[in-house]
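Structure, all two chains, one model.
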Amino acid sequence: MNENIKERISALADGELSEFEVRRVLDEIEKEPDLRNYWDLLQITRRSLVNEDLGRLDIDISDRIRRELTGRKPKVLQENSSHSIYKTYLAATAGLALILGVNFFLTPWGISNISNDAFSEEASQTIANAIASPEAMEVLNNSVLGMDARLKDFNYVSGGGMHANYVFPKDGRKFRVSLSPVMSEYKSKQPSTKRRAFIKTNKGVFVVTVSGNITDEKISRILQNANYFSNQIK
Amino acid sequence: MVDKQSKKETNREADLKLVRRVKKGDYRAFDLLVLKYQSRIVSVAFKYVKEIQLAEDISQEAFIKAYRSIDSFREESAFYTWLYRITANTAKNYLVSKGRRKESSISEISLFENEDFFELPTSDSPEQILMAQNLRDTIYDALSSLPEDTRTALSLREFEGRNYEEIAEIMNCPVGTVRSRIFRGRESLEDLISPVINELKVINNNQEII
């Protein structure tokens, strides 16, 4: 992100910009969704600093309100958003769920010729489209149904992959559910066939993997849950 | 010591700049106000209805009402005060419709515009309280590690509620330097507190999921 525009956003938060500058900054924020996240983090930082109630930080109803008032969908989220983990998680999990909703295979499928760049571009668009889909979010939530697993954190990895890390609160065991383009998955280590599922979509072939301290039975259940619930919303 | 009155005034002025853009039909300015206040507004609604999905729906309705009636906001109070009232009334009216409370008129919104609002007590879990304390400790540690000029500029802004011109006068430097120092200070703080904030978000979220 451009430091100059961030500095102006900081000044906007302090009410120190002229009307003309406010309009210019709004133009910039509209063009780059990461700047919108920067504004969000800035507000949280300021409230934390003066010891104000932070409220429900995991809640984001801004897209719903925007759609209701303008009929417009949110802009594409950038892959490198360094904060707003929950929003990133929502975006990526919804993207994952949407992809799962197209087709699902429990046997290895071979290597797709899709490039990482093409994947990233398409995935970003898919994610953007999927944010608006409550059904998509439902699929992912339901994939860990009955597991008593707690989401610990979430992050993007290079090449367009995504990781969601979970823990079983009962005994502290951890596991990870990942989505990667097939090319990057094959460049790195390959999990056993029991721990992965290949997904063919009209955008290309992707792989979902489950790793960590988790039984084969539970891995199978995660993959089957995802498959089942994605079928429910077709 | 935080100068609450000055801080309130400067924050109010900052919101009013966005509100004036909204009055000219610029939705982007309203979006920034939504981002700024949504977590607090959902908390307000939650305190009435005790159900998070419902609190989100009521908050959404409150923001929509605020946007559609922004021209009736006379700027005599802070935007948040006005928004808070709309939310409280929307929640109360919902409870009335469910037969759980005596009806309150929507006109209260304008009647109370000049009054200071009353914050209901929070009902955070021990885990949230601990994380919030952790966040504060992280912030104060980070603040004390900033270069003196940066720390002074940021403290005058955040704790004393001084505007850039006043800070420039106090620190005997150009306004542009003040703006830059405050920005640098915030950048340093954000790098350190982002992980803690993310953890807080996950805790909030898990309390709904589990």
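Residues 175-209 of chain B form the longest helix (35 residues).
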